[in-house]
Amino acid sequence: MDVGLRVFxxxxxxxxxxxxxxxxxxxxxxxRKRDGREMRWVVYNGLAEASKVPPDWHAWLHHSTNALPxxxxxxxxxxxxxxxxxxxxTRYAYRPPGHVLQGGKRDRATGDYEPWTxx
Length: 119
Hints:
Layout: H1 3-12, E1 13-18, E2 24-28, E3 33-34, E4 37-38, E5 40-43, H2 55-61
């Protein structure tokens, strides 16, 4: 976290909650408003990467809801997956068969491919 955000948060921030990833969420303790809305911000755990914010906290940060995610019980369905940050550029990123970092060899075509030739 940079020094400016640390000082601003220390002087003006009121902690309202945190998420399972260690991100901490704040509101302005003097109830200061920006564009007519309450000032809300996140202090990331580690590198600042917006995709680390879970959907329920994202909705709160962007004023889609005023209820804090740790105070409301949102029903979860069986088909819903747990939130994952964007893994592009990391060693956990998806690499399909044939990707250069996966050996660079892909399966041969199955015979249903017909190359186009101009008439």
